Amino acid sequence: MVSKVLDGKVALVTGAAQGIGEAIAMAIADRGARIVASDINVERGEAMLSSLRSRGVEAHFLRHDVSSEPDWIAVVAETMRLFGKVDVLVNNAGLIEVCHIDDMPVEQFDRVMNVNVRGVFLGCKHIWPAMKAAGGGSIINMSSVTGIIASSDGSAAYSTSKGAVRLLTKAVARDYIDRNIRVNSVHPGGIRTPTVEPFLADPDTAPAVIGRTPMKRIGLPGEVGAVVAFLASDESSYMTGSEVVVDGGWLAV
Ligand SMILES: NC(=O)c1ccc[n+]([C@@H]2O[C@H](COP(=O)([O-])OP(=O)(O)OC[C@H]3O[C@@H](n4cnc5c(N)ncnc54)[C@H](O)[C@@H]3O)[C@@H](O)[C@H]2O)c1
């Protein structure tokens, strides 16, 4: 049983229909927050909402393309109508695409940047009135170890986008420093989610993923969720502009 450090808080989690985002929504809800889960995938989002509600959580699901500014305006407005404020924003939605730069169409690069960077920028921008209503808040942006190092072949677009999230986080932390809003980034290593599963099932790629992790295992989505819940709570009250690595020791060597 975890302590209810987020009692009374309202959290908006993007990309919450599956994987790490789903685990973040569960971890935050377990600690007492009310949840707005958003995602572009409505079918999976509705299924995830049912499991949140079955745990007795006050929660809603909204369709949301994070790369769309009109969608952000609508999602923040609807969250305000439902709950009157937002204390916690988790910019989790992201595209994981691997392609060697020689072969990468410029449209693919733009797509990754639009979701992974533009989406985070729009979230940090449009959440302000809702966090003002809460008297401040905590924003957590999902980066990656590949936002700190270029980890493997084919990560030009993904690493670029996650590196941008890392510095965008620090810039926004400074912009919001006088508004009682803390902004931190989280940098997972290899985490078992539906998108990563094919790489783990492939005998050519699985050994590389495990091999570069000193703990010699893949992380679980809940292990990222617990860290995000800590950053969401007042227990991390002196942290802003920080980059928090959750990687089984990957970057320690
Ligand atoms: N799984 C890992 O090993 C790993 C490692 C480091 C960082 N990350 C990051 O963690 C986050 C979640 O990763 P995951 O493995 O759970 O991915 P995932 O693909 O399993 O889930 C991502 C979710 O984001 C949603 N999404 C995609 N595009 C969207 C859009 N335009 N608007 C709204 N929602 C959209 C998808 O529908 C999906 O539900 C991503 O930002 C990813 O880059 C993952």
UniProtKB/TrEMBL annotation:
Keywords carried by this UniProt record: Oxidoreductase
Signal peptide annotation: none
Keyword Lipoprotein: no
Gene3D superfamilies documented for this protein: NAD(P)-binding Rossmann-like Domain
Record-linked SUPFAM superfamilies: NAD(P)-binding Rossmann-fold domains
Matches recorded under InterPro entries: NAD(P)-bd_dom_sf, Sc_DH/Rdtase_CS, SDR_fam
Pfam families cross-referenced by the UniProt entry: adh_short_C2
Family stated for the protein in its record: Belongs to the short-chain dehydrogenases/reductases (SDR) family.
Protein name: 2,5-dichloro-2,5-cyclohexadiene-1,4-diol dehydrogenase
